[in-house]
Structure formats: C-alpha cells, structure tokens
Amino acid sequence: MPVPPPAPVAIRITRPYATEEEFLDEELETLTRTSITLLGAQPRPQGIVLRFELVLGSGQILARGEGRVVGFKANAHEGLGGLTLRFTRLDSRTKALVDKAAALREQRKPSTRPPLAEASAPSLP
Fold first, then answer.
1. What average pLDDT does range 6-33 have in this prediction?
2. pLDDT at 15 over 90
3. Between the CA of residue 73 and those of 39, 55, 102, 119, what are the distances in Å?
4. How far, in Å, are 25, 38, 51, 113 from residue 13 at the CA level?
5. CB atoms < 10 A from the CB of 110, how many?
6. What percent of the chain is modeled with pLDDT above 90?
7. In this structure, how many other beta carbons lie within 10 angstroms of the beta carbon of residue 32?
C-alpha cells in the first residue's frame, strides 16, 4: 500500500507594513505570478509543501496558500533571508494580490520603445 505524502507544514510570516499597498511598494519583487519569497522564514528542505500565511503588522492576512519549496536565499531582500515557494494552491484573495503585483510590475517596467527622432532632435529656427 502506498504511503500518503506528509501533510503540509504551516508557516506564518508577519511583515511590518500597515497596508497591502505599502507591502507592494516595499516588496513587490518577492511576489510573482508563480512564486513568493517569504522574507524572514527559516530554511526548509527543497521540495516540501508548505501552507503559508503572509500577515501585515495589523494582523490582516495578505496572502494565503500552499507552495513547494524551491530554495532559500540568505540575502533575498535588503539583508533578510527568504524562502521561495512555487505556488500549488492559492485562495481567491491571494490570486487577486498576485494579479495586482503583476500589473504594478508591468507599469514600472521602463519602456522598450526607442524615443521618436523628432522628439530628440533639436528644432531649427
């Protein structure tokens, strides 16, 4: 008889921000469409599944879901270590946050279009 996989371990990380917007301003790069880096989390073995909650300083849950550990970075963001998880399951509120983060990242990307020649050339009298 096959042995069932172990139940996911639960982890709760509190970030020092008052609002979702403040979190996104400071830690946008920790959240992608497919993964999250949990700053302040302890290293865990690669491949295990974790249930996670990311909570604001006020206690408001910012993100909740499950993910498989893909790695740990000792200096993931401003000197803090972080555990990176690839999403396996997210609640609907977290999916909305992921979409919002992706939209913000897209807005912040510098334009790849070259400037118009007329705009950069000095005008002649």
1. 92
2. yes
3. 9, 21, 22, 44
4. 18, 7, 11, 40
5. 5
6. 71
7. 16
